[in-house]
Amino acid sequence: MQNGTQKTPLIKIGNIQLPDFPLLLAPMEDVSNPPFRVVCKDNGADLLYTEFISSEGLIKEGAKCRKKLELFEEERPVGIQIFGGDERKMALASGIVDVTKPDLLDINFGCPVKGIVAKGAGAGVLKDIDRMVRLTKACVNSTRLPVTVKTRLGWDDDTINIMEVAERLQDVGIQALAIHGRTRCQLYKGRADWRLIAEVKNNPRIHIPIFGNGDIDSPQKAVEYKNRYGVDGVMVGRAAIGNPWIFREIKHYAKTGETLPPPTVEERIAVCRKQLSKSIEWKGPLTGISEMRGHYTRYFKGLPDIRTFTAQLVTRNNSAEIGEILDEMRRHYAGFEMPRVAVELVNYHENCAL
Which residues, including other chains, have CB under 8 Å from residue 282's CB and lie 6 or more apart? Predict the structure, then answer.
């Protein structure tokens, strides 16, 4: 206590200060790009991560990989996530990331996609903890940035090794750990097991922040898991797609115990416009407009006869025409009260949503 008031505890990762119980946007391939990250930040996300980036691609200066390094200043704090199975290449990639000056470097040891695992990267590293430690140490030694890791409970139910992973990675210098509560073999099936995440958090040897991930699809569940499992924060992935306001909803519920009403049609249109604008700013008109097409259905799910409008939105190649369609939607749905639509946790297996 100081001057009769209690200080709000902070979560620290290196020099990054996060609020008590921060909300993190999970790295999701083909989803967590800068335009989407910005609208999540606007709506309450405290820490953002890029799509995962191949260490080999960075070294070879692949255009797609280099593009993923780009950040908008309003995203910060933001971490760049890399993956790979070769120590030298991971070290070199870490140095490249260091030069681009994100707020932290994150290592992906959780992607379950077959093609990534077959290369001894992502969740494939869970089969060899000694190599995971070497890969992590190579990154820590090659950057001035704080290094964090995202991983899973283990390879399968018979080889759950998350406690050993947490202790050994902490020992070589990681500064936070995000744990998806499934094994690699589960992919995204079944329920995430947060009890094992809680065991890591309650381990007296662990002093770094532990973030939980898996199945967070509502404010109520986020707060329930915070209270039940004692994690330092939660990472939201699939539930944020087309629904970036889930972050503000969680914060409001945590503070008041009350559920916010669903965002209005006008709010949805405004956020959609901003993401489109940032997408065009980032990728240019042609690609920026094209990459937004997968988001319209999710933004406006639950509206009656919405297909009439989304069918037009996905065929237009001109931002002015898209703006006119959104204006028409705003007039058409004026005064319409949005229903509360259940969040659909779509399985992005091939896209490696973590």
Answer: 33, 34, 35, 70, 72, 288
